[in-house]
Design goal:
By secondary structure, the chain is an alpha+beta fold. Helices cover 44% and strands 14% of the residues. The protein has 9 helices and 7 strands, in the order H-E-E-E-H-H-H-H-E-H-H-H-H-E-E-E. A 5-stranded antiparallel sheet has the order 1-2-5-6-7, covered by helices on one side. Strands 3-4 form a two-stranded parallel ribbon. Helix 6 crosses helix 7.
């Protein structure tokens, strides 16, 4: 009996040591797993960044050619490794600028006009709500709030997930984000403009009925100055009771794609990310490139 005590004590020490070793090994395995997951996450982020940058660089090379063609929206998709990439290039000057409309018309008239646009199906499938759209970004730094336009993202009008879902659809036809913009000068490029978007954009200068009628005439035509506008509207103005209303309309027209956007959606089967890059998003707090992500 006396001789068994050391052996029993040694056995207890061995069991304790094994338990400690097991705990240490489990902790080490967990740390290794966490490090592996972190490495894989970093690798995935790097791959997505490379995909986005490669797509952006490829489109940038072709941008001047895209801007001169007859379509204001060009869409396509490709496989880069295991990533399915959807691209959508657009001329932002072919869209109605909501910030310019709000500033020019005043909030009450702007809300009425945008509601009319939404009711007419121009924003389908989104139900944009201008009355409840927020414009306060909560910026407290001196002058910071003034650096931003009233609207800097469509998330201000409708739930962010609804915006993301619509952005990722890759639709072939013209959609809400091909008709409306929040960036650029607000001048409209009639050659690329959809008639619905053009009618809304022309409300900065014309009453609703005249804006609708002029949009039907000007959409798809290359009009950018007083003379080309006079020629394009010659027959139309002959039937107008107040043709003087159309004087000065040319200042709201663009002769080129001043601001462009590239929407890049990356899907690897597990996760979908959308990046919107804008070039020359001037007038709205920044020049150069402006980027949003969903």
């Amino acid at each position: 009996m006396i001789g068994s005590r050391p052996r029993g004590f040694v056995l207890i020490l061995v069991l304790v040591a094994l338990a400690l070793v097991g705990t240490a090994l489990a902790s080490l395995a967990l740390r290794v797993h966490e490090q592996q997951q972190a490495t894989l996450l970093q690798l995935d982020r790097l791959q997505r960044t490379l995909v986005i940058e490669s797509a952006d660089a490829a489109v940038l090379i072709q941008e001047k050619r895209l801007a001169k063609q007859d379509a204001g929206v060009v869409a396509g998709q490709a496989m880069l490794g295991r990533h399915r990439v959807q691209l959508r290039w657009a001329n932002e000057n072919a869209k109605a600028n909501l910030n310019v409309l709000r500033e020019t018309l005043g909030r009450e008239v702007f809300e009425r006009e945008l509601n009319h646009f939404v009711d007419g199906g121009g924003a389908d499938p989104l139900d944009l709500d201008p009355k409840n759209a927020y414009t306060d970004f909560g910026l407290t730094a001196s002058g910071a709030q003034g650096q931003w336009p009233a609207y800097a993202s469509f998330d201000q009008f409708v739930d962010r997930e609804e915006v993301a879902e619509e952005l990722r659809k890759g639709r072939a036809e013209i959609g809400v984000f091909d008709r409306l913009t929040l960036w650029g000068s607000g001048r409209i490029y009639t050659l690329h403009a959809d008639p619905t978007a053009l009618a809304l954009a022309l409300r900065v200068h014309l009453p609703p009925r005249e804006a609708d009628d002029a949009a039907e005439v000007l959409a798809g035509q290359r009009v950018s100055d007083r003379e080309s506008l006079r020629i394009a509207l010659a027959e139309f103005l002959a039937d107008q009771d107040e043709p003087g209303r159309f004087e000065g309309l040319e200042v709201h027209l663009a002769g080129e794609a001043e601001t462009t956007s590239l929407r890049i959606t990356v899907d690897d089967g597990r996760r979908v990310d959308t990046t919107l890059r804008l070039r020359n998003a001037s007038r709205n707090s920044r020049t150069g490139q402006y980027e949003l992500r969903w």
